[in-house]
Design a protein that fits this description.
The protein is mainly beta. The chain folds into two domains: 100 residues, 3-Layer(aba) Sandwich (Udp-n-acetylmuramoylalanyl-d-glutamate--2,6- Diaminopimelate Ligase, Chain: A, domain 1); 198 residues, 3 Solenoid (UDP N-Acetylglucosamine Acyltransferase, domain 1), CATH 2.160.10.10. The chain is 9% helix and 30% strand. It has three helices and 37 strands. The protein has a ten-stranded mixed sheet with strand order 10-11-14-17-20-23-26-29-32-35, with no helix packed on it. Strands 13-16-19-22-25-28-31-34-36-37 form a ten-stranded mixed sheet. It is globular, with a radius of gyration of 22 Å.
Length: 323
């Protein structure tokens, strides 16, 4: 758990009844109780006194202090949801409610304050252990916490993040940037989904040069302990990578991907979002992973499949005249 206001500023307080005053294009509503809304829930972290945006059914035994927002008529009809609002477009509702509640990094009003230290700019709201080394021309933003014996090399940007102990971030990498959240029905900067989560880098992690790790949309993007990440790797919002991962250069991890322990990933590999990768999985270089992968698997190709099957496919292609 993290304090969302470590990284974002509170813009407005909100109650369950006042939420109807925001421009969210309400079609129908059923709000049976009044309470203060203090935060935002996700499927993995449902909180009391919060607003929860859903597009699939979820069991919530006690939701008296939860306002549910959906654009699915069948979900609105579920009488187990005590306080629920049916909107025309959940993406618009999410954007407008979050922007009403918070001043986040993509708000024009967002202001941080910095002091020049170690030949870098460090936010007044950042906490860095005295044993950590900060290189030249770095920017360390609001709410960032960096633990013991970390090395932050030159030209690194870190914001909206918690780095634990013995972490190395190499030159020109960015940790905690805004994720790629949008709707194809309405593009442009003004229509991007606000990101108000963070990044957590566990102990003893090495991050290469020119990497980008995006903050979570609501919760956290997490890199497990003892992981090593090569240069030019992108890890999108809400990705969770288990401990002892080894990831080669130019690989990309799409949003809301969950990876178990001991991943071994070759270079130039791409992972689709919203899938699960088990423990002890090896992915060959240049693979495209588009579906769930079970524990102890070795996969290759596009779409990535069991490496024995992939080798058979290559042999058959060569027999049929493909080079």
């Amino acid at each position: 758990m993290f304090n969302r206001l470590s990284y974002n500023f509170k813009r407005n307080t909100l109650t369950s009844n006042e939420i109807t005053n925001i421009n969210i294009k309400i079609k129908e509503l059923r709000v049976n109780s009044e309470f203060e809304i203090n935060d935002v829930s996700s499927y993995d972290n449902i909180k009391k006194n919060s607003v929860f945006f859903i597009q699939k059914e979820v069991s919530i035994p006690n939701n008296n202090f939860l306002v549910i927002i959906t654009d699915k008529k069948n979900i609105f009809k579920n009488k187990n949801y005590k306080n629920i609002i049916l909107v025309d477009d959940i993406n618009i509702a999410y954007k407008n409610i979050i922007n009403f509640m918070y001043i986040h990094e993509d708000s024009i009003e967002y202001k941080d304050s910095f002091k020049k230290k170690f030949n870098s700019y460090i936010s007044d709201y950042a906490v860095i252990h005295s044993s950590t080394i900060i290189g030249n021309n770095c920017v360390i933003g609001k709410g960032v916490e960096i633990g013991k014996k970390c090395i932050i090399k030159n030209n690194v940007v870190i914001k909206n993040s918690l780095l634990k102990n013995n972490v190395c971030v190499s030159d020109n990498s960015t940790i905690g940037s805004t994720g790629f959240g949008f709707s194809l029905s309405k593009l442009g900067f003004d229509n991007l989904s606000p990101h108000i989560g963070n990044v957590i880098i566990e102990d003893n992690v090495s991050i290469g040069s020119n990497c980008c790790i995006d903050r979570g949309k609501i919760d956290s993007t997490i890199i497990g302990k003892n992981s090593i990440i090569d240069n030019l790797v992108h890890i999108a919002h809400n990705v969770i990578i288990g401990e002892n991962a080894c990831i080669a250069a130019q690989s990309g991890f799409s949003g809301s991907l969950i990876i178990g322990k001991n991943l071994l990933c070759g270079g130039q590999t791409g992972f689709a979002g919203h899938i699960k990768i088990g423990n002890n999985v090896t992915v060959a270089a240049k693979s495209g992973v588009t579906k769930n992968i079970y524990d102890n698997s070795t996969v290759a190709g596009f779409p990535a499949t069991d490496i024995k099957e992939w080798k058979k496919q290559i042999i058959n292609q060569k027999k049929n005249g493909h080079k």
